[in-house]
Structure formats: structure tokens, C-alpha cells
Amino acid sequence: MVSPSVMSWARRRRGVAVDKLANRLNVKPDAVLAWESGERLPTFRQAEGFAEALHIPFGYLYLLEPPLETMPLADFRSSPGHSGRGPSPDLLDLLNDVLGKQQWFREYRLSEGVEELPFVGSFNTTDPEKEVAANIREVIGVDRARQLDGNWEAFMRILIRNAEGCGIMVMRSGVVGNNNHRPLDVEEFRGFSISDDIAPLVFINVRDFRSAQIFTLAHELAHIWTVEGGVCNPNYGLNFGQRDSDVEQFCNRVAAETLVPGDDFRSRWDPDSEKVDTNLRVLSRHYRVSTMVILRQAYDQEFLSAATYRGLFSGLVARVGQRQRLGEGGGNFHLTLTARNGESFTGAVVSSAAGGTLLSSEAADLLGVKVKSLAGVAEHLFGSPLTLA
Predict the structure, then answer these.
(1) What is the pTM of this model?
(2) Which of 58, 61, 216, 232 has the CB geometry, 3.0–4.6 Å to 2, for a possible disulfide?
């Protein structure tokens, strides 16, 4: 006896037309309308298909009333396209999935005797941005990473590896879970963070420009350092229809200072107005970041007017072309899986399964894979297959 009001809510929640849903379930549109009005009931198999098509737990259909969905994290978003709108079902489902993994990893780290991480909440948003950025650079080894050979993409990979080594979970994905049919909307959010003193987390939406994702990483680290975690959509393009909160503006400035220290930057920037393009190119290579990051710091340091910044930003976007997803693995299943779940989390789940504290079925559910895939994941991470419980 499924709930008609829940069925109606589930369809409207996803914004799916009656005709489209009926076609997916191989029934007539009148049947869907009859289910939603309570005139008829679906068969058990039809109810299962209904829940699967609309991405809701099957048990929801037996609730008396639709569930009240709330944002589980602070919401710092201010995108003009989403003004006044609540979080999408995809974002809510993603948040609940990631929060569940973060809580598991937190318990795992506590069982391993890990102590509180000293950098989480070590500053607040009234502290000087330079001091916050300097501490972030020191903890995750930004300056050391910059000295290594490689471009900004290699630099970002090193920073992510360093952050994970410091105890910060870093997840990168462009879909909900492992469902490639549920892409994340970069106009809705670019990233989010969880400020936890045992298992802090950064999530990066890889539907964003690849060159902008390193700024999102630094931006979310600033949130962790100030215990102001939440869902973010940093304003890269200086769209003046968008009003970033004071917290977001602070984290933007810290992010720019973290990646491109202002004092050093000012000594290297050529003030000749005819050499802006040269500055962007040369300093991008020097700091191992994208020209978007250099452009942002040039604006923050008042070398560029807002109008000049926006014009140059538009040109960069045009050259980049349509948004590209960061190589979650470039088609490599294991690299993609590790990026989506984070290397530290993936390794902890596989190790727990090998140690017998976690069933293989439970490990597979946490990672979103089939049980038979676990051995290959273990070999990818540790160089040899492990015996799994």
C-alpha cells in the first residue's frame, strides 16, 4: 500500500514529466496519474521501478507523508542561477552519501588511535588572510610541491596527495556516487567541505573547469582551517549579480594567497599594462597554477580593474572551451574509483576488509562497487591482491 502523496512528491522532486516516467516504466501516463491520485496502486515490480527511476529509497513509498529534506551542511552558495532555490535531489543525495563515508572514516581513524588534527579550526575569519594561507602552505607543503617539475595539473595532484597524507579526505567526482547517469551541476556548486578534527573532508566537483579546480581545493581548505565547512560556489568570474557571503570572500582571498603569495607576487608582476598576457603566462609557469588563479590574484592585489578582470576571464573561458572533467582516471576504473572516494578512504575500507573488521559486501557497498571488484582495487592500491573477508 504505497503512499500516493509520496509518489507524487518523488516525481515532482526530480522534475520528471508524467509521459517520460510512464515511458520509462512501460505503462500509460494515465497509470502514473492514477497512482499519484490513489485511484490505483502499482504492482510491487512497478513500485520498485518507480523508486529506481526517481532515485529514492524503495522504503520511502511506504511513508505516510513525503520526507522533509534539509541541507545537512551550511550553504554558502550564491549562484544567480540558483538564487532562492533549494538544493537539488542530486546534491542532497551526494551529500548524504559523502557524509556517510566521512562518518565511517572518522570511526575508523578513532579506532586506529588517531588524535585530533591541530590545523582544523586553528584560525577564524577575523584573522589575517596571509597568516591563514601561510599555515595552509606549510601544512600541505605547497612551496615544496611547487619546486617539483611538472605543470599545474601535476602540482594539484601533489597537493591532493599531501592533503590526504595530513589526514584530509579529498574526493573528486562529477556524478552522484558511481552513477554516471546522474551528473552534478557545476552551476549549483563547485565544492564543499566538512570541518572535522578527526576526518576533515574536501569534495571537488570535477564538472568545473579543470583549471579552476585547484582554486576550489584551496578555497575548501580555507573553510577547514576556519571551521566554516559547507557547500560552496566560489565566484570566479566576478559576476556582480552574485553576492558572496563574507565567509566566501574571506576563503577566496585565502585561496589566492595560498596558491600565489601576495608579497612574492607583487615583486614579480610587471605593472606595464601592455604585458598582462605575458605576466599571466610567466607567473602561471612559476607558481604551477592556471592562468585563472594568477588572474584572480592580480585582481585581488589591485593590479587589474574589475572590468579588465572580467574581460580577461571571459577570454580564458573561451579558450578553455566547454567544461572538461578532471581525469578521474582517464577511463581507468581503479583511478576513477580512487578519485571519487579518496585514496585514504578507499585504502581504509579495503584494509578493513582484509583485516576482517569489515565484510567484503560492506566494503563493496561503501565504495560503490561489486564484491568481485575488491581484489583488483586492493591490487591497484597496495601492489598485490589481499585476502578479503
Answers:
(1) 0.88
(2) 61
